[in-house]
Amino acid sequence: xxxxxxxxxxxxxxxxxxxxxxxxxxxxxxxxxxxxxxxxxxxxxxxxxxxxxxxxxxxxxxxxxxxxxxxxxxxxxxxxxxxxxxxxxxxxxxxxxxxxxxxxxxxxxxxxxxxxxxxxxxxxxxxxxxxxxxxxxxxxxxxxxxxxxxxxxxxxxxxxxxxxxxxxxxxxxxxxxxxxxxxxxxxxxxxxxxxxxxxxxxxxxxxxxxxxxxxxxxxxxxxxxxxxxxxxxxxxxxxxxxxxxxxxxxxxxxxxxxxxxxxxxxxxxxxxxxxxxxxxxxxxxxxxxxxxxxxxxxxxxxxxxx
Length: 306
Hints:
The protein is of the alpha+beta class. The chain has a 6-stranded antiparallel sheet with strand order 2-3-10-5-8-11. It has a 5-stranded mixed sheet with strand order 1-4-9-6-7. The chain has 13 helices and 11 strands. The radius of gyration is 20 Å and the shape is globular.
């Protein structure tokens, strides 16, 4: 792989691989069907041949066949009736089988922010999806998801001047997202509850913290930084994050940094010193001690394992 760093694939890049015959696009949301039996199936295969950082939320429904995917160093085999979820900034690569058919719903962060989705109620879902991104679902669940996605696809094909076009399309995608959450909740043992008072506020702090963390973990490892951005004390932030997620704010920060370090050491051609600087460590020695403390091995030992 002739890449110094891990390349980021955004929505604009994904649109380069769009099939005008079957794919539909609306303001940051792409619905695509790919079949390895068909000639255009190779485009996505080529795109995902090497590890890329996908800067979008991707919902993948495997209708037929099998493909293998590596996401954030975890290996999955995706088979028929499997739902797979890619979160923004996940690093993935995939190898598709000869008889694979998948439906993809790809949404940019810009598009997701426009949807009327209650982030507080869905906060616990984040934890389940972060731990596992692959869910085997039943025939009825798959049919229901495909039916909703097909409805969204059909509405997106209508002329943009159609009355209430934006509202209809956005509500269709919202329905798909909520249906996905309903299905996933049965796999992560999460039953939505009505939030009250402080609990809802804690979930909001957690959601904002995770958003800030996703944007800043390469440069900021201090709990104090994130607390200041949320206008609360570091002690209070640590308490809130532990109550919601079972882990402290510092644990989450370390998890993000270590995973990024592993990805860069494994997939990029950056030297250990370059990785250290990319993650805002003052020097290679400090980075090495940090990495070994959290993984039990030195960066050089980990790098040689690949």
